[in-house]
Amino acid sequence: MKHAGPTIDVVIPTYNRRDLLPEAIASIKAQTLPVARIFIVDDGSTDGTIEWVRTLAQDDPAIELVEMQHGGANVARNAGIARAQSEWVAFLDSDDAWEPDKLERQFALLEERPDLVGLFCGFRLVGIKVEKIHRPRDNPSLLDLRCANGLGSTSGAVIRRSALQEATGFNPELPSCQDWDLWFRLRRIGPMGVARLPLVRFNCGPHERITTNMNKVLSGHRAIFANLLADVERAGERARIRSQHKLVEAEIKRRFGSNGAALWLILRSFLQAPSKRALAVGWRTTRGIWDDLRQPRPASAA
């Protein structure tokens, strides 16, 4: 007798993404493993998104529009989680898209590991000059997740609904890093599986999002750092976590062009707890500075 496949609901938070949302929805519809419901949670859009989704939902019973006042993506995600009925809840940001076999490859992990609480995958970073691929480590430990968000953004995550309820969802009080915070709390509940393939197209284009605001990223990082370090008592472990967090902050500084500040953080990290990662981040930062120096400068006006 053939067993029924997994039941999956998808939550898409969106805010003024009328031009990007259709591709995200189409990538869900193209999945080789179908989903039950798609909850599109609009966070107070003013660009015609609401009207377009409302019309779409009239013709597609699998799509449900949830309208909210502007409160942030994680308030919207929690509203979607509250409406979900399936055993699993997947997340997709409205500016990203899935490869057609994403869900199928992720749920294949359960064949040998039925105790998994969350299913993650790799990312293809698009919308930049040179596309990059990020492959998260399979089943990171609690210590790994204290040091960095090794599982990536919400667009790669599929989580057991019961675990989301136990973990009480995303913390909207954090200015950023809410996904990292939730992954850590979920990892306390059970193991995480990662399909180490680039199954999400993560849009790094110039449109506005939290990750384009350095102050929000840094304040969120520092808030979660305090939370993750609070119950660590061993001095050596605290030093390692502090060292790794300096590298995370250095990567943020480097991304926003503050290369000098990044190098100083990398040096402090290495002196506190030497690691291969510090050397790798230092090399990438130094190479970036060198590349910037080699760029031809615009000719000055005569």
Taking the alpha carbons of the first and last residues, their distance comes to 82 Å
How large a portion of the residues is in β-strands, by DSSP E?
A: 15-25%
Radius of gyration: 20 Å
Task: Provide mean pLDDT, rounded.
Answer: 90
* Sequence of secondary-structure elements: EHEHEHEEHEEHEHHEHHHH
Report on the structure:
- This protein is α/β, with parallel strands linked by helices and 302 residues long.
- Helix content is 44%, strand content 17%.
- Strands 1, 2, 3, 4, 5, 6, 7, 8 and 9 form a nine-stranded mixed beta sheet that branches.
- Helix 6 packs across helix 7 (178-189) and helix 9 (235-255) runs parallel beside helix 11 (276-294).
- The longest helix is centred in the last third of the chain and has 21 residues, at 235-255.
- The N and C termini lie far apart (82 Å).
List the helices and strands and how they pair.
Blueprint: E1 8-14, H1 21-29, E2 37-42, H2 49-59, E3 63-67, H3 73-83, E4 88-91, E5 97-98, H4 102-107, E6 118-126, E7 132-134, H5 142-147, E8 158-160, H6 161-167, H7 178-189, E9 192-203, H8 214-229, H9 235-255, H10 259-272, H11 276-294
Parallel strand pairs: 1-2, 1-4, 2-3, 6-9
Antiparallel strand pairs: 4-8, 5-9, 6-7, 6-8
Helix pairs in contact: 6-7, 8-9, 9-10, 9-11, 10-11
List keywords for this structure.
302 residues; 9-stranded mixed sheet; alpha/beta; single chain; 17% strand
